[in-house]
Amino acid sequence: MKIDTKILTIREAHEHLVAGDFTACELAQACLDNIKPELNEFIEVFDDVLEQAKEADEKIKNGQATLLTGIPMAIKNNILIKGKRTTAGSKILENYKAVYDATVIRKLKEAGVIFIGGTNMDEFAMGGSTENSAYGVTKNPYDKTRVSGGSSGGSAVAVTTGACLVALGTDTGGSIRQPASFCGVVGMKPTYGMVSRYGTIAMGSSLDQIGPFGKTIEDVEIIFDCIRGYDDMDSTSIPDKTYEKIEKSLNKKQTEIKIGIPRHFIKDGIDEDVLANFEDSVERLKKLGYKIKEIELPNLDFALAVYYIIMPAEVSTNLARYDGVRYGLSEEGKDLLEGYLRTKGQGFGKEVRRRIMLGTYVLSAGYYDAYYNKAVALREVIKDDFRKAFETVDVIITPTTPTPAFKIGEKSNDPLQMYLSDIFTVSANVTGLPAISIPAGFVERDEKKLPLGLQIITPEMREELLFKVSQSF
């Protein structure tokens, strides 16, 4: 049978594999055939894909298949897969090969997933367009003159084009949800601590979270259920018993679920078509039986500023380890200091250097209290705003992005405009809340249809409610 990986879901693929309609090798080959080099979605396509598929076929033949056995998956190139090149989109790690598996990779391997390759990304996950990758920009499959979003642009494109069925990304300020919106797929950021970060190249340790991309809500939920759970290798991991204490909300009827809209925040600088699409989405939710309530999040306007102080501070700390001594690029100098400077100067790109300098500045003597400590204090105030809001509503919705995908090069010389594209997504990272972007329609630009996304946020550890509302939409 003809295998259309652009529309095939995990469950459908599993049923066909078990029934013998096609093999894991044929499914993997169909994904490989859909890779579009002109879109530049992969930094590296693995050379053992068909070998992995043969092992999956043996498991299926022996009746040992799980739901994920033989499912082709792409992995953002900052998540370690033992023996595979893991660059984080940077020249400084150009030839680095991982020496161990990330926890999420171990879990996916145990489930029988086939890894297609490492996807392109903004260098060290710093950016919202994949233009900051040392390996070239990833182009939007709906319009090649536009960005795919970032920093997980390659993963979003790979799912859209059928180069895999599902993918993993990381989300520090919207890096899964924004490219999902730009590419018309589903992208989810779990509650901070629900998925182990062990084996992920760190950017902002209090903000980073691994999450899945998929074509459907069910596919994303299946991957989330596989990779979630406590890990004693990650000190920020949430113990399973904590999650078990959270009251489940699946028994709530749609007519009882209240959706909050922070209208005071959804106004300035937003594309008119994006706003119109958002209002259409609100009406659709009303027709589905949800109650809509306007809410106030008084300090939400400060979330972006808080993020762009805390994140560079953590970047400055995390990237200090790339010194050219232990691994990665190493440039010789006349002494140790010159070696450090040459390695970092040539190995790190412009945006990475900018954020390291910003972070070092806000952590320096005399500025630590003025900037960093104030941002940390305000972060707690914003968390409290959301806690209060969730006392009156069950979920909160916003557009995922203020505009559709923008042109390649349009914002690359204006960092502030690039940072503003995170305005709706950063709050979930600052607060640690789970959030998802789901396809919400299209807008026409230059005679081409571009996807738009709707963002849904729930209280922490309430992913099941996130899936419930998303599925009905």
Descriptive account of the structure:
The protein has 473 residues and is an alpha/beta fold. The chain has a domain at 10-243: Amidase signature (AS) enzymes (Alpha-Beta Complex). Helix content is 37%, strand content 15%. It is built from 16 helices and 13 strands. The chain has helices at residues 10-19, 24-33, 49-61, 103-111, 153-161, 177-183, 217-227, 240-245, 272-287, 303-318, 336-347, 350-362, 368-389, 415-420, 426-431, 463-472, and strands at residues 42-45, 72-76, 114-119, 139-140, 143-147, 166-170, 186-189, 210-214, 258-261, 291-294, 395-399, 435-445, 448-457. The strands form 2 sheets. An 11-stranded mixed β-sheet has the order 1-3-2-6-8-7-12-13-11-9-10, with helices on both faces. Strands 4-5 form a two-stranded antiparallel sheet. The mean pLDDT is 95.
